[in-house]
Amino acid sequence: MLTYCSGTDLHDLAGELLNQFDNNPPVNPLSPEIFIVQNHGMAQWLSFHIAEERGIAANLKFEFPAERIWTLIRMMDSDIPETLPSDRIPMAWSILNLLKNDNDPALGILQEYAREEDPLKREMRRWKLAGRIADVFDQYLTYRPEMLTSWEAKDDPPVTEFPEERWQSILWRKLVNYWHDDPETHHEHRALLQQKLLEAIEKETINREGLPQRISVFGVSTMPPIYLRILVKLAGLTDVYFYALEPAEEFDHPIRESMGTTGKEYRSLLNS
Q1: More confident position, 21 or 114
Q2: Which of 42, 143, 228, 238 has a 20 to 30 Å separation from 151 between CA atoms?
Q3: What is the pTM of this model?
């Protein structure tokens, strides 16, 4: 079940969360309550608030959005390593190797950037460039996964007015092939794993017994769209609660439990 609670005051939202806990106590009292929060400060504030209101705060597990998504992914496949080749630092090394050994004219703009007579300076420029490209691809994996998978599905660069997208798509395909050809790095990247997780939830092939009784997303102001889609779909298998702060002008009452303006987005995702 998906529940969306929004309000103008953090204390009111926390009070609503405690009401939900009182009305729906855990089936297994030894199972931790799972919270998804934006930062450590919010986790600390909420645990102090619960302790103040209830006299004790115990068996609470606070996670960031990415941590919960990776927990779900590893429920789907426990053999996925802790560090993937597509993680930012390993990816930077892979890009560096491609820049050193691939002379594709389509990547000439990158080779031109790294051109230096001094070999040491040349290597330093390559490494800095590889790191900056890895940073960009890392953001794409989180916020624009559909673009990366569309690049992989095509042999030709996209027709675009932006030349940067052309060489980026070529480099990304080379990077995926580089990982695929090496047995030590032959693991799917995050965009594909997240899509597989979404499909497993939709088909209900994920291990439901491993899911918590409920997940409470508290005070998270921003979240990558793919994370949001996964959590909303997950509400078909377990209880997912969103507690969100919204501007005061949108409310006639400080607490609203509904599928209102923002909540419609969650409902459309759940029913899609």
Answers
A1: 21
A2: 228
A3: 0.79
